[in-house]
Amino acid sequence: MIKTIVLGLVQGLSEFLPISSSGHLVLLQKLMRMPETGLLLEILLHIGSLVAVLFIFWKDWVQMVRHLFTSKPVRLLIVATLPAIVAAVFLGSLIEKAFGGWFLGVSFLITSVLLASSDSLAARAGRGGKHRRSGIEDMAYRQALSMGIMQAVAIVPGVSRSGSTIVGGLATGVTRETAAKFSFMMSAAAILGSLVFKLKDFIDAGGAAFEGGWTAAILGMIAAAISGYFAIRWMLRLITRAGLKWFGLYTAALGLLILMDQLFFGFIFDKIV
Fold first, then answer.
1. What confidence category does residue 224 fall into, taking pLDDT thresholds of 50, 70 and 90?
2. Engineered SS bond to 223: which of 8, 38, 76, 106, CB 3.0-4.6 Å?
3. Is 174 helix (H, G, I), strand (E, B) or coil?
4. Within the chain, where are the H helices?
5. In whole angstroms, how large is the CA radius of gyration of the chain?
6. CA-based angle 69:74:79, to the nearest 5?
7. Distance from C-alpha of 198 to C-alpha of 149, rounded to nearest angstrom
8. In whole angstroms, what is the distance from residue 179 CA to residue 3 CA?
9. Which residues pair with residue 133 across a beta bridge?
10. Global pTM?
């Protein structure tokens, strides 16, 4: 039960902080000797994260539903979601292999490079008198597509989804606040898509329950919702005052530690050489 709650807390925090939730869950499962969390727990943890983003932006979701066929944010979200769908369909088997952990150290380093470049990309996009778009309604479709392509890249475990999409927005001239908000709203579509795939696998597997029990699974879901809520709130405030490079230092250190373990020690992961 304690392990499941820890997984939930980390899922919620790392889903919305630019440090990769999938990478941290793989690492935690190895550290806590949890070889298989089970599809049921994975589904519930994702539902917890989804609840957080739906709750915080509920006014936006209501407006989008009320104007479903005329809302520009709806069209922007559709454009931003398409690249990840294509990547999931055509690269699914390769991604599953990456979830085994062999690519994890490199993925965290990729995240650190993206985060470290965020300030310079944002500054370059703002040069030459270019208009810095101020809200989601003001975003161009190419900007949504850019963030969507970065979300597709982040399907690989260890590459942060929120970090990649925010960087994709900053590089095309989206303001920090708007890039963060749209990134979090994109996560709702991404989580829903992931749930569809996992539910299919869950049904195909005969609906096997989580071996830790329903109580532990539900507590994990609640933990993910609560930590996700605070992570979103914190990031929306932080993004206007500080860059993403500090998160990049963290993911760089984590990536190097994982690579050292994979190459030399084998304490957590099997050696890759």
1. very high
2. 8
3. strand
4. 2-16, 21-31, 39-56, 58-66, 72-90, 92-98, 104-116, 118-125, 141-153, 161-171, 176-204, 214-238, 245-260
5. 18
6. 115
7. 22
8. 33
9. 174
10. 0.90
Residue 106 burial class via C-beta count within 10 angstroms: exposed 0-12, middle 13-18, buried 19 and up: middle
Query: Looking at residue 70, what DSSP letter applies?
Result: T
pLDDT band at 155 (very low <50, low <70, confident <90, very high): confident
Which pair of structure tokens corresponds to residue 133? 């778009």
- 3-class secondary-structure state, position 133: strand
Token pair, residue 89, equals 């369909």
In angstroms, rounded to a whole number, what is the distance separating the alpha carbons of residues 15 and 160? 8
Q: Residue 91's pLDDT is what?
A: 77
The span from the CA of 133 to the CA of 150, in Å, is: 19
> Phi/psi of residue 174, each to 5°?
-80, 140
Q: Tell which residue, 188, 151, 232, has the closest CA to residue 74.
A: 188
Q: 134-155: b or e for each residue (b if 16 or more CB lie within 10 Å)? A: eebeebeeebbbbbbbbbbbbb
